[in-house]
Amino acid sequence: MNVRPIKKTPTFVQSLIPLITIALFLGVGYGVLRLNAEVLLIAAAGVAGIIALRLGYSYKEIENGILESMMKGMPAMLIVIVVGALIGSWIAAGTIPLLIYYGLKLISPQFFLVTACIVCSIISLVTGTSYGTVGTVGVAFIGIASGLDIPLAQAGGAIVAGAYFGDKLSPFSDTTNLAPIAAQSNLFDHIRHMLWTTTPAWLLGLSVYFVLGLISGSGSTATLEKTNFIMETVHSNFVFHWLLLLPPAITLYLAVRKKPVIPGMLISSTVAVILAIFIQQLDLKTAVQSMVTGFEANTGNEIVDKLLTRGGMVSMMHVTLIAFCAFAFGGIVQKAGMLDVLLERLLKVADTAGKIILSTVSSCIAVALMTGSSFLSILIPGELFAPAYKKFNLAAKNLSRTTEDSGTVIVPLVPWSIAGVFMAGTLGVETLEYAKWAVMCYSGFVFAIFYGFTGIAIAPKINEDETVPGS
Question: Fewer Cβ neighbours under 10 Å: the N or C end of the chain?
Answer without folding.
Answer: N
